[in-house]
Amino acid sequence: MKFLNVGTDPRAIALAEAVTRRRGDSTSLFFNPACMARIDGLANAALGQVQWIAEIKHNFASVSVKPGDGEYGVIGLMVQTVDYGELQQTVRSGNDQGYEDWVPSRPRA
After folding, report:
1. Confidence of residue 11 (pLDDT cuts 50, 70, 90)
2. Contacts of 61 by beta carbon, 8 Å cutoff, 6+ apart
3. In sequence order, what are the beta bridge partners of 48?
């Protein structure tokens, strides 16, 4: 679950992720959901992708809605996914070394 430590909002990262008093937007869901109470307008949404080390892609999306001009609170939804790309495996083999490196998405030799 190390991907949960990857920051999604540059401003929040600059604040060392200590997001306590900030104008709310939907990315607040990742740091401090209470900040969503301060969203301007009816709704707010964010999409993004962080290119991490070793070609790992961290994708995120969030949306927050304030129905009835805040009379019913704020509803938020967030999604995070991670794409690790192709992972190389070492498997047993009948060759001189006794093993071979293999990527599952490619045919074995």
Report:
1. confident
2. 45, 46, 47, 48, 78, 79
3. 60
Q: How many CA atoms lie within 13 Å of 20's alpha carbon, on the beta-carbon side?
A: 2
pTM for this prediction: 0.69
Length of the chain: 109
pLDDT tens profile 27-64: 888 888 888 888 888 999 999 998 888 888 989 999 99
3-state secondary structure of 108: coil
Give the distance, in angstroms, between the CA of residue 36 and the centroid of all CA atoms in the same chain.
18
- The radius of gyration of the chain's CA atoms, rounded to the nearest angstrom, is 21
